Structures are given as structure tokens and as C-alpha cells.
Automatic annotation (TrEMBL), chain A:
InterPro entries: Globin (IPR000971), Globin-like_sf (IPR009050), Globin/Proto (IPR012292), Hemoglobin_b (IPR002337), Hemoglobin_oxygen_transport (IPR050056). Residues 3-147 form the Globin domain. GO terms for molecular function: haptoglobin binding; heme binding; metal ion binding; organic acid binding; oxygen binding; oxygen carrier activity; peroxidase activity. It comes from Sterrhoptilus dennistouni. The lineage of its organism: Eukaryota, Metazoa, Chordata, Craniata, Vertebrata. Gene3D superfamilies: Globins. Involved in oxygen transport from the lung to the various peripheral tissues. The gene is Hbrh. GO terms for cellular component: blood microparticle; haptoglobin-hemoglobin complex; hemoglobin complex. This is Hemoglobin subunit beta.
Automatic annotation (TrEMBL), chain B:
GO terms for molecular function: haptoglobin binding; heme binding; iron ion binding; organic acid binding; oxygen binding; oxygen carrier activity; peroxidase activity. Heterotetramer of two alpha-D chains and two beta chains. PANTHER family: HEMOGLOBIN FAMILY MEMBER (PTHR11442), HEMOGLOBIN SUBUNIT ZETA (PTHR11442:SF41). Keywords: Heme, Iron, Metal-binding, Oxygen transport, Transport. It comes from the Eukaryota. GO terms for cellular component: blood microparticle; haptoglobin-hemoglobin complex; hemoglobin complex. Involved in oxygen transport from the lung to the various peripheral tissues. Pfam families: Globin. It comes from Sterrhoptilus dennistouni. This is HBAD protein. Belongs to the globin family.
């Protein structure tokens, strides 16, 4: 059972309230595809991913990034039940999408860098620590139903 | 592999730190200790409280070493040879990939907080590749 202190929850929800989910999601997914180009293998149907500019401007990348981060928002509403929240998505990522769970960790770290560049000095070490904990737990929950 | 463009971006980013190496180093280490408490196990002999002199001094050391690497991007193996020996035989940071990954992530965050929008996806990618190459060199002599 994961334990969150009141302060940790505040650091998460306080920052999340200021996040533009569409922009951040698009940026995080684009960076994943740019910084770790092998992840493009999961997005064959997305069209032009031939350069950082193409990736950043790709409407399918933007739309999917928004979807992914919206789902993250659900996790934030259910911090005490991440396992339940991600149960179906975990099965999906294993059985249909065949995504190596290592990629969840990569995306989590990328999201943290995106938040850091948006919030600059407000993204304090304490804030980063709580968010690293969160992305780690989300990655774990997404990997839970793998078999 | 680091492309010519990657090398240019890395050198530019480093140039923007303008004398803040000590701060960047200290903050990177502090963030690493906060986010990844097991990394503290490599520093039992340090005062690990916030703002400690030892963290500042060591942070500066780490960042200066990275600065040296950045001046020698065409020959990382040789430039980091001594440090490679140190990490393999003395420090034995284990496993090399994981722990250096945490340092890399925290350095990225520090650079991103300082550069904001200037920390573009291309810069992010170049720095990530550089840290990965550095970690590989440092791990070269492990076995």
C-alpha cells in the first residue's frame, strides 16, 4: 500500500493544477520519440516522424500525448489506488500494444524534464522527489498486469 | 553516437552555465539524494544535509569533470580514463548504468529549470546522449 503524506499530495496536486495537459502531454510524447528514437516503433501509423520538427508538429503525436497525460491526471485523482486505476491499461499495454515496461520509466523521466523546463525554479528538489516517486509508481502500476 | 550537431548543442548549453558550475553541481547532487535516496549509500562519509560544504565541493568536482569531457567530445575514453579507473576499481558504483542514470536525470532537470524553453527537445536529446556516452566510458573497466 503506497503511502502519501499530505505534503506530497499537495506538491503533486498543486503543480498539476497549473499544467496545460494538452501542451505538456504533446511535448512529453514528442521528446520521448526524439530522445529515445527506438520508441517510434510503437507508432508506425503516426505518419511523419522523420525529424524533431516533424515529430513536434505531428498532430497524431500531439493528440496521443494529450491522451496519455489525461490518463496521468486520473492517477493523480486516485493516488491511493494507482493499481486499480491502471489495471485495464496495464493489460492493454501488455496484450495488445506489446510495450516493454522500461518505456514507462523513460516517459516518466521525460515528463519530469518537461515539468522542470516549464516551472523552472518552482520545480524544487522536493517537488522533483515527489514527482519521481509518482512516475515510478505509475510505471510500476502499468507493468503490474504483464505476464 | 554524438553527431556534430549534438556536440555543438552540448557545448552551447554548457557555455550558458557561465560560472554557475558549483551551483549546478551541488543542486544536481542534492536532487539526486532527494529523489533517489539509495544513492546516498555511496557517501557514508559525507555530511549530506542540505547546503553541506562537502556536497558543494563534490558537485563542483563532478561538473568540472563533465566540463573536461565536453571539451574532449571526440575522445571521451581518453579524457575520462582516470575517472574510469576510479569508478571501476575504487568507487565501484553499482550497477554503473543505474546510478549514473540518476545523476544524468537530475542534471537534466537542473539544466531544464535554468534554461526553461531553451532546453529544447534537440538539446535534451544531445545532453542525454552525452551523459549516456560518459556513463559508458566510466563503466568501461568494470569487468
Amino acid at each position: 500500500m503506497v503511502h502519501w503524506t499530505a505534503e506530497e499530495k499537495q506538491l503533486i496536486t498543486g503543480l498539476w493544477g497549473k499544467v496545460n495537459v494538452e501542451e505538456c502531454g504533446a511535448e512529453a510524447l514528442a521528446r520521448l520519440l526524439i530522445v529515445y528514437p527506438w520508441t517510434q516503433r510503437f507508432f508506425d501509423t503516426f505518419g511523419n516522424l522523420s525529424s524533431p520538427t516533424a515529430i513536434v508538429g505531428n498532430p497524431k503525436v500531439r493528440a496521443h500525448g494529450k491522451k496519455v497525460l489525461t490518463s496521468f491526471g486520473e492517477a493523480i485523482k486516485n493516488l491511493d489506488n494507482l493499481k486499480g486505476t491502471y489495471s485495464k491499461l496495464s493489460e492493454l499495454h501488455c496484450d495488445k500494444l506489446h510495450v516493454d515496461p522500461e518505456n514507462f520509466r523513460l516517459l516518466g523521466d521525460i515528463l519530469i524534464v518537461v515539468l522542470a523546463s516549464h516551472f523552472t525554479k518552482d520545480f524544487t528538489p522536493a517537488c522533483q522527489a515527489v514527482w519521481q516517486k509518482l512516475v515510478g509508481l505509475v510505471a510500476h502500476a502499468l507493468a503490474r498486469k504483464y505476464h | 553516437m554524438l553527431t556534430a550537431e549534438d556536440k555543438k548543442l552540448i557545448q552551447q548549453v554548457w557555455g550558458k552555465l557561465g560560472g554557475a558550475e558549483e551551483d549546478v553541481g551541488a543542486e544536481t547532487l542534492w536532487r539526486m539524494f532527494c529523489s533517489y535516496p539509495p544513492t546516498k549509500t555511496y557517501f557514508p562519509h559525507f555530511d549530506l544535509s542540505q547546503g553541506s560544504d562537502q556536497i558543494r565541493v563534490h558537485g563542483k568536482k563532478v561538473v568540472c569533470a563533465l566540463g573536461t569531457a565536453i571539451k574532449n567530445l571526440d575522445n571521451l575514453s581518453q579524457a575520462l580514463s582516470e575517472l574510469s579507473n576510479l569508478h571501476a576499481y575504487n568507487l565501484r558504483v553499482d550497477p554503473p548504468c543505474f546510478s549514473l542514470q540518476f545523476l544524468s536525470q537530475c542534471l537534466q532537470v537542473v539544466l531544464a529549470t535554468r534554461l526553461g524553453k531553451e532546453y529544447t527537445p534537440e538539446v535534451h536529446s544531445a545532453v542525454d546522449k552525452f551523459m549516456s556516452a560518459t556513463a559508458s566510458v566510466l563503466a568501461e573497466k568494470y569487468r
